[in-house]
Design a protein that fits this description.
Length: about 280
């Protein structure tokens, strides 16, 4: 069942490359997540789509201002700051990459949010928090990195109080990878390895609700939101196609993993579903 241990070196490679860091800082403005576009909206406004996705998360958490939430895999803290400023939540972010945490703390101080958000080193399979500390928890496009999704879900369950809410957002296969057409698997599998996505080999749209139930949650909603994510996929592909062609011909392709994957993954986009799962820890 997967690697069963944290591949820190792999994650450092994925997020630490100069090309990747520059992309996330300059283009994505520190967010490391996709976007949500409503029907009829322009697909080209990527930053608006990212803010809208954060708003979807805040609405699904549906917690009152002052509630305490866990951000599992906080990156540079963009989502945590959105939850604090737009929804009045108190956020504890954990991440395993020191350079993401340093960035999160720096941006946090600049936004004068140190009293509402805190960031610390933590692997979400072994959370550095006591039982029942949180009213809510979320993972914005991070569970796919999980080497042991049942263990991660059990940890989210442990740190939530009875009645606490969990929201998971991110991509997954519609069913087991083995059921995908051989050509799709040939494109997908090296991508999963290169990006350190062991979770994508273990959970998928069909079994994630069962994994949540097995961890003790009641699943409130398993929303296939692919159509809201698809416009971002289309826009990013157009933006990346030409730069990737230039890098492929004249540069060093190994340094531009994100460019390469975005273009290659576009060819198998039908196999990727984007979900928002909302679950509750029963009150007993
Ligand atoms: C795609 S980024 C998303 C970051 C942030 N949620 C956002 O939307 O901007 C995935 C993040 O998960 C973190 N991560 C991966 N495995 C983790 C683990 N086991 N525990 C905590 N964080 C993890 C990575 O270091 C990275 O910062």
């Amino acid at each position: 069942m997967g690697a069963q241990e944290l591949d820190l070196a792999g994650l450092r490679r994925v997020y630490g490359r100069a090309g990747s860091r520059r992309f996330y800082t300059l283009v994505a403005r520190n967010a490391r997540h996709w976007g949500w576009t409503e029907p009829g909206q322009s697909k080209w406004r990527l930053w608006r789509a990212q803010r809208q996705l954060e708003d979807v998360l805040g609405r699904k958490l549906a917690l009152p201002a002052g509630a305490r939430v866990l951000d599992a895999g906080c990156g540079a803290g963009v989502v945590a700051r959105a939850m604090a400023t737009r929804f009045g939540l108190l956020v504890d972010g954990v991440d395993v990459l020191d350079f993401h945490l340093a960035e999160a703390r720096r941006l946090n101080a600049r936004a004068a949010l140190v009293d509402r958000t805190a960031f610390r080193w933590g692997d979400y399979h072994h959370l550095p928090f006591a039982d029942g500390e949180f009213d809510g928890a979320y993972s914005m496009e991070t569970l796919v990195h999980s080497y042991d999704p049942p263990r991660a879900l059990a940890e989210f369950h442990r740190v939530l109080r009875p009645g606490g809410r969990l929201v998971l957002l991110g991509p997954m296969s519609a069913g087991p990878l083995e059921e995908l057409p051989p050509r799709t698997r040939r494109v997908l599998k090296p991508y999963l390895d290169a990006h350190v996505f062991p979770g994508a080999r273990i959970y998928h749209a069909r079994n994630l609700p069962d994994l949540l139930t097995a961890a003790g949650f009641e699943v409130e909603e398993a929303l296939d939101a692919t159509r809201y994510y698809q416009p971002t996929t289309e826009a990013v592909h157009v933006y990346f196609r030409l730069p990737w062609e230039l890098v492929r011909r004249f540069g060093d392709p190994a340094k531009w993993l994100n460019l390469r994957s975005t273009v290659e993954m576009y060819t198998v986009r039908e196999a990727v579903r984007w979900y928002v799962h909302t679950a509750v820890k029963p009150s007993r």
